[in-house]
Write a structure and sequence with these properties.
The protein is α/β, with parallel strands linked by helices. It is 18% helix and 31% strand. The strands form six sheets. Strands 13, 14, 16, 17, 19, 20, 22, 23, 25, 26, 28, 30, 33 and 36 form a 14-stranded parallel sheet that branches. It has an eleven-stranded parallel sheet with strand order 12-15-18-21-24-27-29-31-34-37-39, covered by helices on one side. It has a seven-stranded mixed sheet with strand order 5-4-1-6-10-7-11, with helices on both faces. The termini are far apart.
């Protein structure tokens, strides 16, 4: 697109009650500005120019890897003044203005806005809001053509009744924008240079101003306080949940699910209450997610069931597995099919073979476990010597008795058995029983101490 995008992000965001610049607050795990930048990038503009001011060094530092042309607005004298700071950098045919504090702006709406402004020289995104308070209002003439925008603080009673609002997002022919901005004054209630004043200036110059309507309210919602932030996050997550529900995912309660990243579900999936999904999570056909699971960047195989209260991070879980309740599956874990992981089991960087069971109270880290293995309750792989991590290999068909410690590096050979309560320091022999225990004795003379 022959387009430059200016993103207004100089404000402090006083009502956020925080030292952090407003646009650096996290919206579903990403700074607002990053969300806007990602959407802006999708339009493939010639350049993206964020206008920054308050604590600009934090913003520059955070986004230094991206190809952005920051400009500084030292004093925040209004949205018109903010765009003015970028004027020497813009020279594409059209200029789009986005707000850094409107994180959910929709790409398709922006494309429609661009197309509209190709025809009319100046186009806005508007929205009919049931409660328009606080927003600039779109004032139309007798022919229903846009005449001007009036800010809430400058509006009269009749104008306050208008429910068509300015979202702030507009696209303007660059030459026209430069021309109109030079005439904007700060003669208004807030003593600010309003970008919105260019609308009336354009109309006076007989330029046809047109609009498109945003499809969804949340996409044009600005964030001014933590309260608004939390509400908008909830709206966005609700939207995602409702969409999955419509696709046939059985979500027990759309208001009690947090989809903070991307959740992809195949058919016949069900998700109980209180689950949090982060990053990219895929739930294959027929998988069942019990209550209160936290799942991040993970694939869950078909027919697999997660019971309540598991924490799963950056892992691949195969088909027909049963996990939890209360397990912790840490990054780089790969479970094959038909595996049982039980309560209070921690796995980290482990590959587990088919039909293996780790059912109770174990820690298994940096390991490869074969198929048909039974890891008894309380088994610990001692993978860390205080300086380095070492690997444990447990081959197919092994049985590890309860409360055993396997001191890595070590290999438990195929089909071998470890007696309960053993500390194993050397590789075992295939098919044999290995144990390490002191022989049991009875002390005849011993008596329990008595209270004096
Ligand atoms: C603005 C619009 C209003 C619209 C509303 C939508 C104007 C005059 N008014 O009002 O019509 O309904 O947005 O949310 O444009 N900013 C700067 N520098 C400044 C002032 C603002 O970078 O000097 C940035 C802010 O950081 C923010 C954005 O511009 O990202 C909007 O500023 P804000 O003060 O919130 O504008 P509103 O009064 O809400
Ligand atoms: Ca605002």
């Amino acid at each position: 697109m022959d387009l430059d995008i200016v993103i207004l992000a100089a404000g402090k965001g006083t009502r956020m009650k925080s030292d952090l610049p407003k646009v650096m607050h996290q919206f579903l795990k990403k700074p607002f500005l990053q969300m806007v930048l990602e959407t802006a990038k999708e339009l493939k503009p010639n350049r993206i120019i964020p206008v920054i001011g308050y604590k600009s060094e934090i913003i520059r530092e955070h986004f230094k890897e991206l190809d952005l042309e920051f400009v500084e607005q030292k004093e925040q004298l209004g949205t018109g003044h903010a765009v003015q700071q970028a004027i020497s950098k813009i020279n594409s045919k059209l200029t789009m203005i986005l707000y850094g504090d409107v994180p959910c702006i929709n790409k398709d709406d922006l494309i429609n806005l661009y197309r509209k402004s190709e025809k009319t020289q100046l186009a806005l995104i508007t929205f009919k809001k049931s409660n328009p308070k606080g927003f600039g209002r779109i004032v139309r003439d007798n022919n229903q053509k846009i005449a001007k925008i009036v800010e809430e603080k400058d509006s009269n009673d009749a104008e306050k009744e208008i429910n068509e609002i300015n979202t702030g997002i507009m696209c303007v022919e660059t030459a026209l924008l430069k021309n109109l901005l030079s005439s904007v004054t700060n003669d208004n209630a807030q003593k600010e240079y309003y970008l919105t004043d260019i609308i009336k200036l354009a109309v006076d110059a007989k330029i046809n101003v047109d609009n498109i309507e945003a499809k969804n309210e949340y996409t044009i919602q600005g964030v001014n306080s933590i309260e608004e932030l939390v509400q908008l996050e909830r709206d966005v997550m609700n939207e995602k949940a409702k969409k999955l529900l419509e696709e046939g995912v059985k979500i027990s309660d759309c208001s009690r699910i947090d989809i903070r990243g991307e959740l992809v579900c195949e058919e016949n999936v069900s998700i109980d209450i209180g689950c949090i999904f982060e990053g990219k999570v895929t739930l294959k056909k027929g998988s069942v997610i019990g209550p209160y699971n936290i799942i991040k960047d993970t694939n869950i195989g078909s027919g697999t069931e997660l019971l309540a209260f598991n924490h799963v991070d950056n892992s691949i879980i195969g088909n027909d597995c049963r996990v939890g309740p209360y397990s912790r599956i840490r990054p780089q874990t790969q479970l094959n099919n038909k595996i049982n992981i039980g309560n209070f089991v921690e796995l980290k960087n482990v590959k587990v073979g088919e039909e293996t069971k780790v059912n109770h109270l174990s820690y298994v880290g940096d390991s490869i476990i074969g198929k048909n293995v039974n890891v008894g309750a309380g088994t610990i792989t001692c993978n860390y010597d205080g300086a380095n991590k070492h690997q444990t290999i447990i081959e197919d068909g092994v049985f590890i008795g309860s409360d055993s410690q396997l001191i890595a590096p070590i290999t438990i050979k195929k089909g071998s058995t470890i007696g309960a309560g053993s500390t194993i320091t050397q590789d075992t022999i295939e098919g044999k029983l290995t144990l390490s225990r002191v022989n049991q004795i009875t002390v005849d003379s011993w008596e329990r101490p008595k209270k004096k």
